Amino acid sequence: MLKHRGFPSRLPGTDFQFTIRRANKQGATKIIRRERYKDRNAADRRADAGFVAALWNHFGEDPFERGNLDAGRLSWLIGREVVWAEEPADPSSYDQLLRLDRKRAEAAFPEVFAAPESFQWEDDDDEDWD
């Protein structure tokens, strides 16, 4: 499993996780499309925006390997702002390539692209992960 060094591990000041520490021995958790209803609370919407901002800052529009990115967080965005970069897609693979669809991400989260500095990331590079 590829570990994305420099990618924020969570949304600062919250327990919303963006990455996992180690691979699951039974295999990668499957990425499934989760519906985002209009009545989601503000903290969940902020976590989605923060994750999109982290993806944009780290990868831009380039394809990226799923690696240690959290399947639960990806599931809120898959098929909309995050798309499969290769077919056939394997939602249960750490090696699956994904891509941020800028047009859709900007439409859903305009604040991420209007003020990218609004997300202050903690420096996780000093932490020793397995």
- Overall shape: it is globular
Number of strands: 3
- Class computed from helices, strands and strand pairing: alpha+beta
Beta content comes to: 5-15%
Rg for CA atoms: 14 Å
The major beta sheet can be summarized as: 3 strands, antiparallel
Helix percentage: 25-40%
Span between termini:
11 Å
**H/E order of the elements?**
HEHEEHH
Arithmetic mean pLDDT: 87
Uncertain segments are: 124-130
Keyword list:
130 residues, alpha+beta, 3-stranded antiparallel beta sheet, 3 strands
Topology:
Layout: H1 42-59, E1 64-65, H2 71-75, E2 82-84, E3 97-100, H3 102-108, H4 110-114
What can you see in these coordinates?
The chain is α+β, with helices and mostly antiparallel strands. It has a domain of 74 residues. Helix content is 27%, strand content 7%. It is built from four helices and three strands; from the N terminus they run H-E-H-E-E-H-H. Strands 1-3-2 form a three-stranded antiparallel sheet.
